C-alpha cells in the first residue's frame, strides 16, 4: 500500500481534504444493483493484489448510514475513483453525485486523472468526465489487465498519459 508523510489541502469551502497516508483506497463508483456483480468482481481482484478497495457492495451492511459512509470514503479515503460506465449508471443520481464529488477532489488534490472511467457498455459521457480517458471493460479480463498495467506502471497512482481511450471527443461505441 502507498505510504508517505501526512499531507492535505483545504478545499474551496475551507474543509480539510486528506491526501496523506489515509488516502489509499481505490473507490469503485457503479450503478446499484445493476453493476453490483462487476463491482464485486473488480474489488475482489484488486484486493487480492493488495490494493485497498472501497465499494458499497463490499463495505456496507444492514443498518449502515450508507450515504454518509460512502461520501466519507470518497472524500477522505479515495486515491482514485474507478467509475463503472454504463448508460444506466450515468443516469443514476447517486453516480452523478459521486462524479461531482470526484471532479471537485480532482481539483483539490491537483490530480486531473483522479476519475478513471471504466467502459462496460457504450455510453454518452457526462460533462464532468467528457475529457477523461476510459479503459475498455467490454472484456472484463482485458480491461482489468489494462487497469492493473496503469496502476502498477504509475508512481503514486498517477495515471500515465496516452492509455485508454477518450470518452468525450466522440460517442463511445
The total strand number stands at: 8
Return the string of H and E elements: EEEHEHHEHHEEHE
The share of residues in helices is 25-40%
How is the main sheet built? 6 strands, mixed
| Low-confidence runs | 1-16, 157-173
Name of the CATH superfamily: Toll/interleukin-1 receptor homology (TIR) domain
**Average pLDDT for all residues:** 83
Indicate the structural class.
Answer: alpha/beta
Which CATH class?
Alpha Beta
Strand content: 15-25%
Summed up, the helix count is 6
Q: What is the chains' assembly state?
A: single chain
Number of domains: 1
Rough outline: globular
Q: Rg to the nearest angstrom? A: 15 Å
What is the strand arrangement across the widest sheet? 4-3-5-6-7-8
CATH fold assignment: Rossmann fold
What would you say the CATH architecture is?
A: 3-Layer(aba) Sandwich
Span from first to last CA?
Answer: 35 Å
How would you characterize this protein structure?
By secondary structure, the chain is an alpha/beta fold. The chain has one domain (8-166): Rossmann fold. Helices cover 36% and strands 19% of the residues. The protein is built from six helices and eight strands, in the order E-E-E-H-E-H-H-E-H-H-E-E-H-E. The strands form two sheets. It has a six-stranded mixed beta sheet, with helices on both faces. Strands 1-2 form a two-stranded antiparallel ribbon. A hairpin with a 5-residue loop joins strand 1 (8-10) and strand 2. The protein is globular, with a radius of gyration of 15 Å. The N and C termini lie far apart (35 Å). The model is unreliable at 1-16 and 157-173 (pLDDT under 50).
Amino acid at each position: 500500500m502507498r505510504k508517505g508523510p501526512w499531507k492535505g489541502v483545504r478545499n474551496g469551502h475551507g474543509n480539510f481534504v486528506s491526501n496523506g497516508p489515509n488516502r489509499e483506497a481505490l473507490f469503485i463508483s457503479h450503478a446499484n444493483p445493476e453493476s453490483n456483480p462487476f463491482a464485486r468482481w473488480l474489488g475482489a481482484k484488486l484486493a487480492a493484489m493488495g490494493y485497498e478497495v472501497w465499494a458499497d457492495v463490499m463495505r456496507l451492511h444492514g443498518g449502515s448510514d450508507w450515504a454518509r459512509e460512502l461520501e466519507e470514503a470518497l472524500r477522505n479515503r479515495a486515491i482514485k475513483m474507478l467509475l463503472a460506465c454504463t448508460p444506466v449508471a450515468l443516469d443514476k443520481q447517486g453516480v452523478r453525485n459521486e462524479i461531482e464529488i470526484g471532479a471537485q477532489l480532482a481539483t483539490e488534490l491537483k490530480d486531473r486523472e483522479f476519475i478513471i472511467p471504466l467502459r462496460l457498455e457504450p455510453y454518452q459521457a457526462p460533462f464532468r468526465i467528457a475529457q477523461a480517458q476510459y479503459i475498455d471493460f467490454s472484456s472484463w479480463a482485458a480491461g482489468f489487465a489494462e487497469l492493473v498495467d496503469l496502476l502498477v506502471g504509475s508512481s503514486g497512482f498517477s495515471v500515465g498519459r496516452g492509455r485508454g481511450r477518450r470518452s468525450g471527443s466522440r460517442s463511445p461505441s
